[in-house]
């Protein structure tokens, strides 16, 4: 069976994988507003493993008040996602998605190439759309995944979640994203995009950090 590439993705933006770029803040994709936030959420392997579990079981999303439904694994079992080094060089996958895992509620774990329907509420308004998992990384000291919009109605773009267990034993949670305004209020008032991103990233932090448990 052939190995899928980023060309198989049905996301609605061109810069697939750009959330991983080291210079995202300096050189974001065209018309997008970039954001990079990082927080220390504890220390030690146990904290790292717990936070990584929160990422891969979607709790980083559901704990932020966003509903996750209709998770559909990739139709390509060999699909391993798109991952790049800081210089843009493609990286080999950390592992293959051979066996699908599930949460206690029966929700499939995050897997490369999967799509999920997300529903959120902002200022009393309901927003929903499909997202594609761009890549998943499970390494000895880093666990991460990125999702991209498929049919954006508010903002189009990509969000990367990662947890890193650093050599000094600290555990850090990071969210990297770029958003292209789609809805007309966001196109007219780009400050709304930044405010929405700040609110969303803070909600993701509350979902992962033990300080908010």
What does this structure look like?
It is a single chain. Strand 6 (155-165) and strand 7 form a beta hairpin. The chain has a single domain (6-212), classed as 2-Layer Sandwich (Alpha-D-Glucose-1,6-Bisphosphate, Chain A, domain 4), CATH 3.30.530. It is globular and about 45 Å long. It has a 7-stranded antiparallel sheet with strand order 1-7-6-5-4-3-2. It has 213 residues and is of the alpha+beta class. Helix content is 18%, strand content 33%.
Brief rundown of the structure:
This protein is an alpha+beta fold and 213 residues long. Helix content is 18%, strand content 33%.
Keywords, please?
213 residues, alpha+beta, Alpha-D-Glucose-1,6-Bisphosphate, Chain A, domain 4, 7-stranded antiparallel β-sheet, 4 helices, 33% strand, globular, disordered N terminus
Present the secondary structure layout.
Layout: E1 33-43, H1 45-56, H2 59-62, E2 67-72, E3 115-122, E4 125-138, E5 142-149, E6 155-165, E7 170-181, H3 184-188, H4 191-208
Antiparallel strand pairs: 1-7, 2-3, 3-4, 4-5, 5-6, 6-7
The top level CATH class name: Alpha Beta
Low-confidence runs: 1-9, 93-97
Using the coordinates shown, work out and report the CATH topology. Answer: Alpha-D-Glucose-1,6-Bisphosphate, Chain A, domain 4
Mean pLDDT equals 85
Radius of gyration: 16 Å
Which architecture does the CATH hierarchy give at level 2? 2-Layer Sandwich
Percent helix, as a range, is: 10-25%
Indicate how many domains the architecture comprises: 1
């Amino acid at each position: 069976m052939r190995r899928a590439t980023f060309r198989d993705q049905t996301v609605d933006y061109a810069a697939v994988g750009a959330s991983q770029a080291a210079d995202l803040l300096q050189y974001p994709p065209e018309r997008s507003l970039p954001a990079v936030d990082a927080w220390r959420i504890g220390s030690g392997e146990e904290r790292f493993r717990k936070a990584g579990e929160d990422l891969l079981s979607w709790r980083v999303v559901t704990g932020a008040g966003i509903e996750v439904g209709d998770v559909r694994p990739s139709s390509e079992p060999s699909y391993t996602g798109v991952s790049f080094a800081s210089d843009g060089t493609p990286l080999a996958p950390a592992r293959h998605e051979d066996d699908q895992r599930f949460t206690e509620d029966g929700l499939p774990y995050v897997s490369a190439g999967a799509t999920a329907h997300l529903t959120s509420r902002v200022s009393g308004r309901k927003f929903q759309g499909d997202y594609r998992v761009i890549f998943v990384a499970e390494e000895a000291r880093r666990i991460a995944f990125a999702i991209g919009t498929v049919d954006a109605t508010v903002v189009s773009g990509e969000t990367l979640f990662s947890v890193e267990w650093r050599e000094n034993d600290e555990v850090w949670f990071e969210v990297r994203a770029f958003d292209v305004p789609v809805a007309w209020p966001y196109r007219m008032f780009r400050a709304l995009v930044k405010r929405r991103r700040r609110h969303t990233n803070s909600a993701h932090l509350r979902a992962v950090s033990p300080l908010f448990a």
